[in-house]
Design brief:
Length: 201
Amino acid sequence: MLSKLPSVFTASHLLKKGLKPLCKTVVLALLALGLMSCSSASIDDYANTSPKLDLAEFFDGKLTAAGIVQDFSGKVTRKFTVTMEAQWTDTPQGKQGVINEWFVYDDGEKQTRVWTIIDKGSGKYQGTANDILGIAQGEAQGSALRWRYDMILPVDGSEYEVHFDDWMFLVDQNTIINKSDIIKFGVTVAQVTLVISKQTH
């Protein structure tokens, strides 16, 4: 779900430049989109869907991803690709995964991020990264997983605390679609869409 910017595991890294113009007009966005707020969908809606999403099974080995960042108007403000490497080990706290991410943006900028994920069992997950406030909480049911967490985004010398409502949907054993709403004052001010693919060779 990147010290400057996106996920799940990627959304936050993508946002520094994507939100730069947005933060300057956040008041306008709030007025224009006053009825738009965080997702009302529930993870329970996906309990009977398939295939079943298991993070340790999908995020294992090498993966690649491609995505976009959109501002509150739907305009694409950034494009990016990601390469990932993930591995899991058994710990007293539960199965632990480390996911390394390397980002390349359409303007040539490069970034790196590392997620540490704990599988708490029964579809519950916890995650940490350098720019996350506290601990990201995740819950999986059926083919879906929802992450929720807060983070600080530095923009033009200022810092903005935002909330991520981050959804993953397993399409098949090699493909996840990841959609993130970035929320400020209860309003969705930007979105990140990401397609993640396992590398089978």
